[in-house]
Amino acid sequence: MIGRLAGNLIERRPPHLLIDVGGVGYEVEAPMSVFDRLPASGQPVTLLIHQIVREDAHLLFGFATQQDRELFRSLLKVSGVGPKVALAILSSVSAADFALLVEAGDSQALTRLPGIGKKTAERLVLEMRSRLDGLELGQSSLPAGGGGAPDAVSEARAGLVALGYSPAEALKMIKGVGDDAVSTEAMIRQALRNRMQR
Fold first, then answer.
1. What is the CA radius of gyration of the chain?
2. DSSP secondary-structure letter at 166?
3. Where residue 11 sits, what CATH number does that domain have?
4. Integer CA distances (angstroms), 71 to 93, 97, 108, 130, 179, in order
5. Could you give the CA distance from residue 166 to residue 192 in angstroms, rounded to a whole number?
6. Within a domain: residue 137?
7. Neighbours of 19 (CB within 10 A)
8. Domain CATH number, residue 183
9. Which of 38, 73, 162, 174 is the most buried (most CB within 10 A)?
10. Residues 29-87: pLDDT tens digits?
11. What's the domain range around 183?
12. Is there a single domain that holds both residue 127 and residue 75?
């Protein structure tokens, strides 16, 4: 199985990429988040790959981060979600934002994603909650507080995980912290206070 490609970017036609690796051109499909990080054509590029082997094709899906690839793989395990829908989800929201929607049980917001109907949204909420616990999902871009520096946010989230909260739950707790908590310790204290007041 192909797990990583490092070569030169030859062509980009969203969602398709063509990467030259040692004289062989690999066609890769990627979420839009990857296109934001791509170099100019002819420049070196490295992508993490998920390969799907079918009777009629070998499909390659490329990701800039391990988190996105792991979420893609978890999404494929949900009934009714195939590679195209999983790619559309990752093109529409970040892994961290998706985790917040699932953790909050917001199936209504999930139906706004391409290819997701009401039943699939409800299935995503039910099946993905337990799967998100093992994923390191990074920072959310959803607006809702959490104005600290990125390093402080990451450290505070890691601290909450060390205290026994799931990664998705820790991320949700950090997003509820006000803009005045800028240090890691202040963010953790405020997140715990907010949690106790519920």
1. 18
2. -
3. 2.40.50.140
4. 12, 12, 20, 12, 29
5. 14
6. no
7. 24
8. 1.10.8.10
9. 174
10. 999 989 888 999 999 999 999 999 999 999 999 999 998 999 999 999 998 899 999 99
11. 150-196
12. yes
- The model carries a pTM of 0.70
**Taking Cα atoms as reference points, which of 8, 62, 4 lies closest to residue 39?**
8
Beta bridge partners of 27: 18
The answer on 34 and 12 residing in a single domain is: yes
Task: Determine, yes or no, domain membership for 171.
Answer: yes
Q: Is the dihedral of CA 175, 176, 182, 188 positive or negative?
A: negative
Q: Is the distance from CB of 175 to CB of 100 less than 8 angstroms?
A: yes
Contact present, 166 and 135 (Cβ < 8 Å): no
Q: Domain check: are 82 and 128 in the same one?
A: yes
Q: Write the single-letter amino acid at 146.
A: G
Token output for 158:
């890691």
| CATH code where residue 81 lies | 1.10.150.20
101-127 burial, b for 16+ CB within 10 Å, e for fewer? bbbeeebebbeebeebeeebbebbbeb
